Amino acid sequence: MANDRSRQLMSRARRVIPGGVDSPVRAFKSVGGTPPFIVSGKGPRITDADGQSYVDYVGSWGPLILGHAHPGVLRAVKAAAAKGTSFGAPTELEIELAERVCKALPSVDCVRFVSSGTEATMSALRLARGATGRRRILKFEGGYHGHADALLVGAGSGVATLGIPGSPGVPREFTRLTVSAPYNDLNAVESAFKRWGDDLACIIVEPVAGNMGCIPPEPGFLSGLREICDRHGSLLIFDEVMTGFRVAWGGAQRRFKVRPDLTCLGKVVGGGLPAAAFGGRRDLMKQMAPDGPIYQAGTLSGNPLAMAAGITTLDELAKPRSYETLEARATQLTEGLTALAADAGVEFTTVTLGGMFGFFFHPGPVRNFEDAKKAHEGRFRRFFHQMLSHGVYLAPSPFEAGFVSLAHRPSEVAETLEAARIAFRSAARVR
Ligand SMILES: *Cc1c(COP(=O)(O)O)cnc(C)c1O
Fold it and tell me: How far, in Å, from the CA of 242 to the mean position of ligand 1?
C-alpha cells in the first residue's frame, strides 16, 4: 500500500487523540482502512501525506463550495487576520455578513452568529422552547442536527416514538422530550401532534435530508409541516446548516418556497472557517439576550476571520449562474454514475440538488432512513475504496451527501466517471 505516511500518522494520532480523529466519521469506521492524512487542497483537489491527489467531493463536509484555498477567500482571511484575530467586541464584518444572510433568506429578519452548527441548532431549540413556553420538540429519524443532548435521538420506526438517547452520557431524562418521526411521513407527524401537540415547541427538520444519504422532501412534505405547526402554535425550524447556500441561493426554503420561523446555518456561511448562525422572525430573535431573557453567548462568535471568509464566499455565490453551474456539474456526475451503474448491472439510485448530491446502492425510491438503511453496504464499501485508490475522495459512509464546488470542472467530473467505471465493475462482484 502506498499510504505508509498516513498509517504512521494515524498510529501517532491514536496515542493522543481518541481514534486519531477530532470527529468520528473521519476515522473510516464504516468503510474500513486508514484515512489519508491531508496536507493541502487547491480548487477541486486535495493531496495527502503520501503525495496522492484526489478529486474531492467532501469539501470539508460542505463548506468549501468555492473549492479549496480560493484566492479571494484567502485574501479576505489574511486581510482580516492582519488586523487582529478576535476582539470579543462588535465589528462591522458581522453586520456585513448578517445583512447578506437576511437579504438572501426572506424568512430571516435577524441572525446571530455562533461557531458551529451544533451551537446553532442548540440555540434555536432553546429559543423555540423559551418563546412558546413548551417543552417537547419533534425531529426526524436519520436527521442530524449536531451533537447536543436533546438532538442525539434516532430511535423508532413506522410511527412517532419517544426519544431514546443515541449515545451513552445522554441521560434518558434529557431526551424524553424529544419526539421522533420518519422523514417524509406527515401522518406520523400528525399523530405526534395529536398526542403532544400542546406541548410541542417546534419541529426541527433538514429541509433536504443530508445526513442519511441525500433524501429530498416529497412534494407537500415541507408545506405540510408548516401547516401543522401553524395549526398547533408550534415553530418550524429549518436546519439549513448543510442546505443553506448549497441547494440554492437562500437555501432549501427558497427552492421549495416554504417559510420557517427559525433557520440554522453553518458550513457554507463560514466559507471554511468556524462560523454558523441561527436567525428568523424579528419578534422571536428579540427574545434572545441582551434584548430579551433567553440566554446564549460565545467567546469567538462572529469571529472576524470567519466573517471575512463567509462574506467572500457569499459574494462569489451571488454572481450570476453559480447555482446553475453547481447543479450542472453535480448532474453530469450523477447522470454519469447512473449510466455506469446500469452498464455494470448494479442497482443504484441518485439525487441532485444544486451543489449537493447523493447516491444509494439500492433501486429506490429512498424516502426515509429506513429505506436508506436497506442500501447495499458491501457494494458501497467496495465502490468507495476503488474510487479512493483511483483518486476520488468520497465521504466514507453511505449515509452522507456529496458536494461539488464551483472549482470542479467538467474535466474533473469526467475523470471521476472513468474511476467509477472500474469501481462499479468491482462493486458488481460483491453479493
Ligand atoms: C453538519 C451539520 C450540523 C452540525 O454542524 P457542526 O458545525 O458540525 O456542529 C447540524 N445540522 C446539519 C443539518 C448538518 O449537516
Answer: 7
Q: At 354, phi and psi to the nearest 5?
A: 55, -130
Three-state DSSP class for 168? coil
Is the pTM for the entire model greater than 0.85? yes
**112 bridge partner residues:** 278
- Please write the tens of the pLDDT for every residue from 84-132: 999 999 999 999 999 999 999 999 999 999 999 999 999 999 999 999 9
C-alpha cell at 158: 413506522
**Partner residues linked to 165 by β-bridges:** 153
The partner residues of 153 in beta bridges, in order of sequence, read 165
Give the whole-angstrom CA distance, residue 238 versus residue 209: 11
Reading the block at residue 389, the C-alpha cell is: 485508490
Query: Whole-angstrom Cα distance, residue 152 to residue 148?
Result: 6
Query: Catalytic residue numbers?
Result: 144, 239, 267
Q: Rounded distance, CA 278 to CA 293, Å?
A: 17
| 237: alpha, beta or left? (left if phi > 0; alpha if psi -120 to 50) | beta
Instruction: Report CA Rg, the chain.
Output: 21
Residue 372 Cα to ligand 1 middle (Å): 19
Q: Whose CA is nearest to atom 6 of ligand 1?
A: 117
Query: What b/e readout covers 23-54, taking b as 16+ CB neighbours within 10 angstroms?
Result: eebebbebbebbbbbbeebebbbbbbbbebeb
On the question of pLDDT at 240 being above 80, the answer is yes
267-293 confidence digits (pLDDT tens): 999 999 999 999 999 999 999 999 999
Question: What does each C-alpha distance from 191 to 54, 143, 220 come to in angstroms?
Answer: 47, 19, 17
Q: Which domains does the chain have, with CATH numbers?
A: 4-69+320-427 (3.90.1150.10), 72-317 (3.40.640.10)
Task: For residue 126, give the nearest of 288, 351, 307 by alpha carbon.
Answer: 288
List residues bridging with 265 in a β-sheet: 277
Instruction: Quickly tell me which residue has 460565545 as its cell.
Output: 298
Residues with CB under 6 A from ligand 1: 116-118, 121, 144-146, 206, 210-211, 239, 241-242, 266, 276
Query: Looking at the predicted structure, is the pLDDT value of residue 345 above 80?
Result: yes
Calculate how far, in angstroms, residue 171's C-alpha sits from the geometric centre of ligand 1.
22
